[in-house]
Amino acid sequence: MPGATVLVAAGFFLGCVVTALLPLRSRRRPVVPGKSSRRRREVMESAIEHRLLQGPSFVCIGGGTGLSTLLAGLKSFTRNITAVVAVTDEGGSSGRLRQEWGVLPPGDIRNCLVALAEDDSSLNRILNFRFDRGELNGHSLGNLILLAACELTGDFNKAVEEMNRLLAIRGRVLPVTTETVVLRGEAENGKFVRGELEISEYGAQMKRMWLEPPSARPLPGVIEAISDADAIVLGPGSLFTSILPNLLLEELTKTIRNAGLPKIYVANLMTQKNETERMNITAHLDWIASVLGEMPDYIVVNHTPIPDDYLERYREKGAEPLYLSREEELYLERNGCEIVSADLVNIKEGKYLRHHSKNLAEILTRIAGDYREDNLRR
Fold first, then answer.
1. Burial bucket for residue 221 (CB in 10 Å: 0-12, 13-18, 19+)
2. Which of 106, 154, 191, 276 has the fewest CB neighbours in a 10 Å radius?
3. Going edge to edge, which strands form the sheet with 172-175?
4. Contact 240, 187 (CB under 8 A)
């Protein structure tokens, strides 16, 4: 479709121009009287940058909205972040581009790049702009920019690396693999399901899951990031379609197990209709432990009540709040999983339940910092 190709190229050009201008705008400073004030500001900026560079190193594994929410808070504490993103998305714009162009799904990667950018509010408006007519109806500009970068470089990983540099993000975003992989699974009733969409429908009824091809390997950069990390964070995010698809890569799970790093699971605030319906928090963890080969060292859970009006709204969509019961606490303690309970509820834009990015980032930074100090004392 030559028309679509031209539009994609035009979208890429527009995106490059706009995003290249954003850093210039963010560096534009008001006129300050006198050199001393300017010098004080420069010293403060340098001190902040030094603090971020000295922050703990995280490898955050997941996908979807949950991972980008985590990254948005974590970037205020450190620049040493590697976001490892699942590549099995089949829905919306990403699914269409995957089917029509044979490109790995760009949507979750785009969201993580925006979350780690210096000026995420401006980038959100631009990269998340969604066309509403013509051949590009339903596509976001950010997805098209990644597609065009992939076409230009001939390699999805190189395209993502180029976007990392272009947006000057606080950290690094990597697809977990650049191989085309498909989620497969078997439900408790014996039905075999294929693809993320079917998996999400049968999630709570799944008996086992795997990737095709089973020989798929993670990117070398993902393995290298783990070797340099202070902590590994799993979630928050959809259990069967954002977190587990990454852990189904055998080489990655083996590397995580052998790394000797604290493994932290961030529990979701709510269940998801069909995918995790009627599953409690320990059921989520049991699935992770079965795929990872061991229980995470920490679990971070919310203990703050969700406002009744939002609770009712989500219940109408088949979602229920996730809180730890006393029985679950005892179960986790017996299995060596330390519980960190905190106020993690945030109402975004007056509509959506999200994790409180800052509170979550503070908890993760403390856990990783304690691990780093313990290592230094040894």
1. middle
2. 154
3. 172-175, 81-85, 58-62, 231-234, 263-266, 298-302, 338-342
4. no
Distance (Å, whole) CA 180 – CA 347 = 36
pTM of the model: 0.86
pLDDT in tens, 98-122: 878 888 888 899 899 989 987 666 6
Question: What Cα–Cα distance (Å) separates residue 268 from each residue in 180, 308, 343?
Answer: 28, 18, 13
Q: Given this model, what pLDDT does residue 120 score?
A: 61
Question: In the numeric block, which tokens belong to residue 4?
Answer: 């679509």
Q: How many domains in the chain?
A: 1
Domain span holding position 305: 51-91+170-377
Q: What is the CATH number of the domain that holds 214?
A: 3.40.50.10680
Rounded to whole angstroms, the Cα distance separating 91 from 81 reads 27
Structure tokens at 73: 């808070």
Predicted confidence band at 167 (pLDDT cuts at 50, 70, 90)? Answer: confident
Q: What is the pLDDT of residue 34?
A: 61
Residue 60 within any structural domain of the chain: yes
Q: With respect to residue 103, please indicate whether it lies within any of the assigned structural domains.
A: no
Q: Which of 275-279, 294-298, 349-353 has the lowest average pLDDT?
A: 349-353
CA distance 160 to 156: 6
- Indicate whether 361 belongs to any domain: yes
- Name the β-bridge partners of 205: none
Give first-to-last CA distance, the chain, whole Å: 62
R_g (Cα) of the chain, nearest Å: 21
User: Is residue 100 a part of any domain in this protein?
Assistant: no
